Amino acid sequence: MAGGGVIGVGGGDGRKPYPGNLTPYVTITCIVAAMGGLIFGYDIGISGGVTTMTPFLQKFFRKVWEKKEADKSTNQYCQYDSQTLTMFTSSLYLAALLSSLVASTVTRRLGRKLSMLFGGLLFFAGALINGFAKAVWMLIVGRMLLGFGVGFANQSVPLYLSEMAPYKYRGALNIGFQLSITVGILIANVLNYFFAKIKGGWGWRLSLGGAMVPALIITVGSLVLPDTPNSMIERGQTEEARAKLKKIRGVDDVDEEFKDLVAASDASKLVDHPWTNLLQRKYRPHLTMAILIPFFQQLTGINVIMFYAPVLFNTIGFGDDASLMSAVITGIVNVGATLVSIYGVDKWGRRFLFLEGGVQMLICQAVVAACIGAKFGVSGNPGDLPKWYAIVVVLFICIYVAGFAWSWGPLGWLVPSEIFPLEIRSAAQSVNVSVNMIFTFAVAQVFLSMLCHLKFGLFLFFAFFVVVMSIFVYYFLPETKGIPIEEMNQVWRSHWYWSRFVEEADYPNGGMEMSKGNHGPKNV
Questions:
Q1: 388-435: pLDDT as tens digits
Q2: Cβ atoms of residues 269 and 276 within 8 Å
Q3: Mean pLDDT throughout 253-267?
Q4: Residue 211: its pLDDT value, please?
Q5: Residue range 70-116, pLDDT digits in tens
Q6: Residue 479: pLDDT band by 50, 70, 90 thresholds?
Q7: C-alpha dihedral, 298 to 161 to 519 to 243, nearest 10°
Q8: Cβ neighbourhood burial of 181 (10 Å; 0-12, 13-18, 19+)
Q9: What pTM, to 2 d.p., does this model score?
Q10: C-alpha dist (Å) from residue 260 to 110, 161, 232, 485, 508
Q11: Phi/psi of residue 216, each to 5°?
Q12: 340: closest CA among 207, 171, 92, 469?
């Protein structure tokens, strides 16, 4: 991969990059850890499909079902507009938001592994309750437990991957997390398609209860995975960390990287309150990215497409069965495009993928808005839809999904997890997950109402944000390809805007060769 050339670290001082290989040990470790994304992906995929299953709606959301049956010929935009139904989908994200705040402390004090273990166990409990649900309150409680699990997993897995991977391959290995999210979505879509056909109408129980499988994978995985050297040093296991680093990198000469990790850890120990520390001026670029990247990721409109792909396709005029099949198609596109990202992220860089994906999504949103506007108009009554029309809409939605899946999808998790210094890493990652969940919740909660009121303009609403986020990336996001994680602060120091917030003397690591070995951070 081309991302691994020699980098002049610290403003072109010609320092050699850390030695290390992509060992089978680290590859297998990262694949197992990345499975943490399965639980999030499975859930995103399953909830949209289950809410189009007639037996499920009849049992738990009878009013929605009655309205859907009564509205066969009228306004297609508003047939699923129910706050209880959206609360079922989005309660998970509220719970994930709360647990990601607790997960920060667990991840920092007890290690990344334990956080993953908690995530798996909580998700398993939620899946069990949902599979046996008899009433709406059981569904909501189950969803909240699933959410607690997602909060822990999403907080710890991207950090774990960024710390384990050699910096030359960090992008590709970290995107394994996003890949398993997309695989989770695809598996969920395929299962929904087949479970919806089960006679007797209890297929939705299998869909919801099936979440126990990815939960078990991450639970067992977290028990067998090694801890990251960064985390071991942070908890005082210095010699074990050196041995672990040698094993991970596959070389004996790890002194330089080890020294930087220890210096980063020493600096982080001087920080009593990482949350208040985040507000310091020198962390302004990190905090900005931790908030804006997940905010923009949700406002691409992707979760709207993925959550409600079956609902959306049903609304466009596909039948229940066909709409689930269309969701499977978008799921396959999602996985394929994420593989493109794994190939290209360390070759072409993060900025290129962000900007290319932005242009692609923008064009598709404009086309989809025009197509839906032309047929459904403002009344939401399309009459008979020709087959070619539905195919055009699905085609452009697929191109849109591909654009997201090799840009904002994986990079929205990768970039924040690789830019934070150790002393604020857990806290900043929690901010990242929390913002992601707040806006996932908000978008999920208001999407069906917005579809009802904005109609086809909803796609233009998201297109506007795609323009804003692409401008933001162009001007404010530096390239992080091929830079060791503990050396990341050089990118802020050389940036036209962020350099005014980041002074060299502020950094004990990531700038050690320039601060003459002074390991004590200033103004902490």
A1: 777 787 888 899 999 999 999 999 988 988 898 878 888 888 899 899
A2: no
A3: 84
A4: 92
A5: 765 556 667 666 777 777 777 888 898 889 888 888 888 888 889 99
A6: very high
A7: 170
A8: buried
A9: 0.79
A10: 21, 18, 14, 10, 9
A11: -65, -40
A12: 171
- What is the pLDDT at residue 277? 84
CA dihedral sign, ordered 94, 95, 101, 107: negative
List alpha helices for 250-349, DSSP H: 255-269, 274-277, 284-298, 302-316, 320-348
Q: How far apart are CA 93 and CA 444, in angstroms?
A: 9
Full DSSP string of 218-239: HHHHHHHSPPPHHHHHHTT-HH
Which pLDDT band holds residue 7 (cuts at 50, 70, 90)? very low
**Do 480 and 490 contact (CB within 8 A), yes or no?**
no
Q: Does residue 505 register a pLDDT over 60?
A: no
Q: How far apart are CA 469 and CA 486, in angstroms?
A: 27
Dihedral in degrees, nearest 10, Cα atoms 438, 442, 445, 451: -150
Q: 346 with 171: CB under 8 angstroms?
A: yes
CA 504/CA 171 separation, integer angstroms: 26
* Angle CA 427–97–129, to nearest 5: 135
Distance CA 340, CA 352 (A): 13
**If you compute the radius of gyration of the chain from its CA atoms, what whole number of angstroms results?**
23
Q: Where are the alpha helices (DSSP H) in 455-523?
A: 457-476, 489-493
Half-sphere exposure at residue 153, Cβ-oriented, CA atoms within 13 angstroms: 37
Question: Coil, helix or strand for 258?
Answer: helix
Contact 177, 31 (CB under 8 A): no
Highest mean pLDDT among 47-61, 274-288, 345-359, 443-457: 345-359
Cβ-proximal residues to 315 (8 Å cutoff; 6+ apart), any chain: 76, 77, 79, 80, 451
Question: How far is residue 203's CA from residue 49's CA, in Å, rounded to a whole number?
Answer: 11
